[in-house]
Design a protein that fits this description.
The protein is of the alpha/beta class and 576 residues long. The chain has two domains: 195 residues, no CATH class; 276 residues, Alkaline Phosphatase, subunit A (3-Layer(aba) Sandwich). It has an eight-stranded mixed sheet, sandwiched between helices. Helix 1 packs parallel to helix 3 and helix 3 runs antiparallel to helix 6.
Length: 576
């Protein structure tokens, strides 16, 4: 039966109006909602060029508007919801790691589940109704060959223009390769999704053709191990550094026991990390793999997604080979930045999700200690004779440091560096941030003292190591405060934190470094604990000793090149 022409026109007009409203809504909440001007233009171009592409391909106006609105709208909504629940936007690796585990996670969130089910049903239905409810009316010319040729030419031209916009070195190169910490916080959901495809492509380290392969990288020395295998606990202290590196921090609250050596200290001092102000996951990566994420280009910022599955040698795996059980206590949801999957690739036997124990962003360090004690007791109850390697992270020191001073306990409830004490004076903003930092540092110090007593106060041998993952930025304001760091780290003073390594049994070897790179912390822990080393950690130890604790800034570049050749070419530390 033929549909009357007036009805067909009304239906077409209605479809076009609905599609146009959806497109306008997308444009308002999508491209125009991006963070920076260049990102607004970039997202807008992607939307408009995609519209041209579908228009030429389908010759249907309402259908094209609806396809683009639904496609980019789905990215915007998915990014918003993921940020709401997991504090990270939708990124390209999320598609690669989308599996039944992801579906299982979605089922725990009613809103996510409802939106997902509705999208799966409504999007295909709307597109089918739109496509078959509208005639191909654009570019209708005669002869037919001219019509087909015009559409084909337009489709190819639009596709080429789209690829040009998405080229990392094309007209929108400025939106690519931005720092990961900005990417996961700026809420430019469309830009972040499309640029992340390029940002996750790994650049493997280049080995020079004249590399010296005669340098030996195998240890030939007896193992110095205690009679009983010790439990080993490593604590990543979020956004923590010794405040004494700030030239003005001479008040009593700047001095904390957690930074001071005592009779149990085996190694301590300034730590050189590879990130500033954020990017904790890159410090996790460096500790657990002995590598720097910067070796792999901007893709290294996505280490939990793209590097964790490819690294062959890790600290947890080395402990496991020595008979240990490797466990991780995570202060947030394991879904954050692919943590649960990444820790599985790193080689941990168990992953304790902090949200299941009531932990979260605001949890103080003392709450983490209670969870650790509970987990430790449970593990020992089940496997009393198996030594443990435990890695856990604090979170309370994470920014922002903006609780009003009046709400903090004394002496932090007033500016610690007021204008009357020039030249040590700070403005209100820095007094606020530094006051918050030092108040939380007091809590960290108390927790670590309790943990030290718990682990090292007994008869069972134990090793405790804690370190700062990066400096807080105070929104960049910390950079105006003069810092006092070892001369060898002066050019990277923003990347200096601290490390402390203790044991309750004697260690015959001495460790003394002006600055230690975080990539060497793993082999140092193995030395103190007396754990046999595989080929990678033997080489890592030798580089640490030959370069005096420095890694990528090692003075002997030929030595560094030989090391990278050995671990990546000989040992194949990075596999497919």
């Amino acid at each position: 039966m033929n549909i009357p022409a007036p009805f067909h026109h009304y239906r077409t007009a209605l479809l076009l109006m609905i599609a146009l409203l959806a497109f306008v809504a997308l444009f308002a909440f999508g491209p125009l909602g991006e963070h920076t001007a260049i990102e607004k233009v970039f997202a807008a171009m992607l939307v408009l060029v995609s519209l041209l592409l579908v228009l030429f391909a389908s010759a249907r106006a309402a259908f094209s508007l609806l396809v683009v609105a639904l496609f980019f709208g789905a990215i915007e909504i998915a990014g918003t919801l993921k940020f709401m629940y997991l504090t990270t936007p939708l990124l390209a690796p999320d598609l690669e790691y989308f599996n039944f585990g992801t579906i299982e996670v979605i089922t725990h969130y009613p809103l996510l589940l409802g939106v997902s089910v509705a999208a799966l049903i409504l999007i295909p239905l709307l597109l089918l109704l739109s496509f078959f409810g509208e005639r191909a009316a654009l570019l209708v010319t005669r002869p037919r060959a001219l019509h087909i040729g015009a559409r084909l030419l337009g489709t190819v031209a639009a596709a080429c223009l789209l690829m040009t916009c998405l080229a990392p070195k094309g007209p929108f190169s400025a939106v690519f390769n931005k720092p990961m910490w900005i990417t996961v916080n700026d809420k430019s959901f469309i830009t972040d999704f499309f640029t992340s495809f390029n940002d996750t492509v790994i650049d493997e380290p280049t080995i020079p053709p004249d590399v010296d392969r005669s340098i030996p990288w195998k240890l030939d020395r007896p193992l110095l191990a205690p009679p009983t295998r010790p439990d080993v606990v490593a604590v990543l202290e979020e956004s923590t550094f010794d405040p004494h590196i700030l030239k003005l921090c001479t008040v009593p609250v700047c001095t904390r026991h957690m930074f001071e050596a005592d009779r149990n200290t085996r190694a301590h001092g300034p730590l050189s990390v590879h990130t500033f102000g954020g990017g904790t996951w890159t410090s996790e990566f460096s500790l657990l793999t002995g590598l720097s994420h910067t070796l792999f280009g901007n893709a290294g910022l996505y280490a939990p997604y793209n590097l964790a599955p490819r690294v062959a040698f890790t600290l947890p795996k080395t402990f496991k080979k020595a008979g240990y059980r490797a466990i991780a206590v995570y202060p947030m949801s394991g879904d954050f930045l692919n943590a649960r999957n990444a820790y599985d690739y790193y080689g941990f036997d168990a992953f304790y999700d902090g949200t299941e124990y009531g932990l979260g962003w605001e949890s103080p360090d003392a709450a983490l200690l209670k969870v650790f004690e509970r987990v430790y007791a449970d593990e020992k109850r089940v496997r009393p004779d198996q030594p443990l390697f435990v890695f856990m992270l604090t979170m309370h020191q994470h920014g922002p440091h903006m609780v009003p001073l009046a709400q903090l306990p004394a002496p932090y409830n007033q500016p610690l560096f007021p204008g009357t004490f020039k030249p040590q004076a700070l403005d209100d903003w820095l007094n606020l941030n530094l006051g918050n930092y030092l108040e939380r540092l007091q809590q960290s110090d108390a927790m670590l003292a309790d943990l030290e007593k718990f682990l090292l106060g007994g008869e069972h041998p134990a090793v405790l190591m804690h370190f700062g993952d990066h400096q807080p930025s105070f929104d960049g304001a910390i950079n105006v405060i003069p810092k006092v760091v070892p001369k060898v780290a002066a050019h990277t003073s923003l990347w200096v934190t601290y490390y402390m390594l203790k044991s309750n049994f004697p260690v015959r070897q001495r460790f003394d470094y002006a600055v230690l790179d975080i990539a060497f912390l793993g082999s140092l822990v193995l030395d103190v604990a007396g754990i046999p080393k595989d080929g990678f950690y033997q080489a890592n130890t030798l580089l640490r000793e030959r370069c005096k604790g420095r890694y990528l800034d090692c003075k002997d570049l030929k030595m560094l090149a030989s090391y990278h050749d050995y671990i990546f070419t000989k040992l194949r530390d990075l596999h497919e």
